[in-house]
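thought: fold this chain, then report.
action: predict
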Amino acid sequence: MEYLKRIDETKDEMIKTLQELVSIKSVEDKPAPDAPFGKGVAEALDYMLQKAEAEGFDAENIDNYGGHIEFGGYTLDEEGQIVGTNEEVMGIIGHLDVVPEGTDWEYDPFGGIVADGKIYGRGTVDNKGPVVAAFYAMKALKDSGYVPEKKVRLILGLDEETNWKGMKHYLSKVKAPDFGFTPDAEYPAIHGEKGIMVFQLAKKIGKTTGKGIELRSLKGGNAPNMVADYARAVIRADKMEAYEKVKELAAEYRNTSCTEENQAAYGAKINCKGIGKSLEIVAQGVSAHGATPENGVNAISVLMDFLRKIDIINDDVNEFVEFYNQHIGFELDGKSMGCGFSDEPSGKLVFNVGQVELEGEAVMLTVNIRYPVTLNDDKVYEAMMPVINKYNMGIIKIKSQEPIYMPADDPMIETLMDIYREHTGDREKRPIVIGGGTYARAAKNIVAFGSIFPGDPDPSHKKNEFIEIDKLVLNAKIFADAIYRLTH
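observation:
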């Protein structure tokens, strides 16, 4: 079709747009005037809205909490003249905010560097690349003369990675789309998403008395929905020779953890460095999305595994270390916490520790759980309470998102599956349920569709995040067909 050819013709332009968008560091930051999620996020929104207006789309900024780009919504007669309007909206919901970049990138995380047929940078997959692909899908359709009977609206969220306040504000001012998709997950069509809960476990730490090794600080992780790739502890000992023993333990740990036999900690690193009269212990893991922690190695778990080898004098600290290693460790399904649930549509619960911090007289552990679609968060909390109570910990509930589920034979799911099969030739895959939490939860009749293809790595939330240029173009074609089929 003509619009698919136009996508090929705009390939270079698409690459440049994504590079420029990636160069904007849109990590949520301190609020500023006209920038409730920080200047970088506001700049990313302005960039996309200006780009849209320059291409002849209608664009709207909703109080800097979100925005949209749209066209269509007209009924034409046989001669192509507008004879009526249609307020039904097909939404494509994406987001322009990104998680923090983390460490140890080979490329500038905000450089948009092109190498080996890929564009590297934070957000190339999650979710700026898919947003750009959707935009060029709309542009190809519009430039080819297609006038959709239903409005096509690309909605730009600004705090999807954090609290969704922007989307809530946006939808309080703008009518929600009637149906549509969010290109913020994987293929094929996704007909369910597990429930999500974020909470903190807090344990009081009494003052340290006596002589020996004291834990002075503990901190790790960048966000609840990321597998921590970095964690740090600082210890203080009354005798310097104690540090030599810790360094020996670290060397021994490196030799045993970085082997294929020890898969849980494979790829982890423990290093020690003197800081004045203290010793810094740094654990490095492998970052991954919190919905798929099996793709990473949690540095917090590595550090806690190592700390159990050290004779720390504070009983509260030792109890916390014991709790962590006995009930969490490198386990990813919550079984030892008492919440190892599963169901037929969605499989096992996913348990990810995203952050840890020793702050004053308390240590705080931030946990992100994805639970099966047939459960609710009350049941998960109830199942964990015996363990939490055993260790005299408190629980602070931060975020809760109920699961969503649509039958696999729903007409929209079947349409999206047909489009996926036509473009990939993959006739075997069936609609799936995921652990990720997307904007499909923001409105009714929205499902996740794309943008990662089966068998491809998921670099979301990882260092060296990238999107293959050929896949960026293929996404645009799939989205264009989806828009055409769902609005024709």
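thought: worth noting. The first strand starts at residue 58 and ends at 61.
final: tokens above.
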